[in-house]
């Protein structure tokens, strides 16, 4: 579905992501992992159409996304940034409606269908009970659900998330990842997300890309990628990898004590 070919991209003419090639499968829940500064966000931004490659290309169903019209790409792929600054006291409902902006008619006014869609998304994301509240007054977990709702309002088949659970407690993290899993498994969305928490990556992602210093160190299923040797090499720390007996998915336990 998405083919990344010899991609190099970065900032101020310096490549952060260096000559990487990988395919992202339709219907996958793909996680991008790796330590801070590895280039995860840079890769995600580039494959979302927000950071033009210095070399190589990104094809979506065979078409170079940087040669597609912006509105056509916006119909196919949405991107939820990390730590999006919000400084205006919008109501939750209005804020979610903004997600439909790229889809709206020429005059950019909301139609009955736009209102219906926002209602449906608020039901799905469990944001309806604070629909009228000021977005600046929400808890971290509520705010994150609203950001996801806004991204869903764009109604694309592919959704890219940059650290959707950063700064959330484990209960809120789990709620957000379960929501993404439902989108993936029940609604057929292709999910691509950067993710810090290796346990969540193991549990929720069908496919993982492990980045290190701007290149792909390894990729494959969660079980293939989350082996203790590779994780210890990349993160430079000791870990124990177990299998969750319920889900049969890998669990990565950092061992912080010194030898
Ligand atoms: P990760 O998401 O894996 O933590 P990033 O892709 O955010 O890594 O960053 C990779 C590298 O690119 C880092 O060295 C970072 O300092 C640099 N970088 C990130 N954003 C910018 C930017 N806007 N301008 C210049 N350098 C940046």
Short description, anyone?
The chain is α/β, with parallel strands linked by helices. The protein has helices at 40-47, 70-76, 92-98, 112-125, 140-152, 170-185, 198-204, 222-225, 228-235, and strands spanning 2-11, 14-24, 29-33, 55-60, 63-64, 77-80, 158-162, 190-194, 207-212, 215-221, 238-243, 250-255.
What's the gyration radius in Å?
19 Å
Helix residue percentage: 25-40%
SSE ordering: EEEHEEHEHHHEHEHEEHHEE
Largest sheet: 6 strands, mixed
How many helical stretches?
Answer: 9
* Overall spatial form: globular
The beta-strand count equals 12
Question: Which percent range describes the beta-strand content?
Answer: 25-35%
* Terminal residue distance: 45 Å
Global mean pLDDT: 93
How would you classify the helix and strand content by structural class? alpha/beta
Indicate the low-confidence ranges by residue numbers. none
| Strand order within the widest beta sheet | 6-7-8-3-9-10
Q: Give the distinct bound molecules.
A: adenosine-5'-diphosphate
Q: Looking at the chains present, what oligomeric state does this protein adopt?
A: single chain
């Amino acid at each position: 579905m998405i083919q990344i070919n010899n991609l190099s991209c970065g900032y101020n003419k310096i490549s952060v992501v260096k000559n990487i090639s990988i395919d992202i499968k339709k219907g996958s829940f793909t996680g991008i992992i790796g330590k801070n500064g590895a280039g995860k966000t840079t890769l995600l931004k580039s494959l979302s159409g927000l950071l033009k490659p210095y070399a190589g290309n990104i094809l979506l169903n065979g078409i170079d996304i940087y040669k597609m019209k912006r509105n056509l790409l916006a119909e196919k792929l949405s991107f939820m940034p990390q730590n999006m600054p919000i400084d205006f006291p919008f109501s939750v409902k209005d804020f979610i409606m903004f997600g439909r902006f790229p889809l709206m008619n020429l005059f950019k006014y909301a139609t009955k269908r736009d209102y219906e869609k926002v209602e449906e998304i608020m039901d799905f994301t469990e944001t309806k009970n604070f629909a009228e509240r000021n977005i600046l007054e929400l808890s971290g977990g509520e705010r994150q659900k609203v950001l996801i709702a806004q991204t869903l309002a764009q109604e694309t088949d592919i959704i890219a998330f940059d650290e959707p659970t950063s700064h959330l407690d484990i209960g809120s993290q789990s709620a957000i990842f379960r929501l993404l899993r439902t989108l993936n498994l029940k609604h057929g969305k292709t999910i691509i997300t950067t993710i810090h928490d290796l346990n969540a990556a193991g549990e929720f992602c069908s496919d993982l890309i492990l980045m290190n210093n701007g290149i792909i160190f390894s990729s494959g299923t969660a079980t293939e990628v989350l082996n203790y040797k590779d994780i210890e090499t990349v993160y430079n720390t000791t870990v124990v990898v177990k299998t969750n007996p319920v889900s049969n998915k890998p669990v990565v336990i950092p061992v912080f004590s010194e030898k």
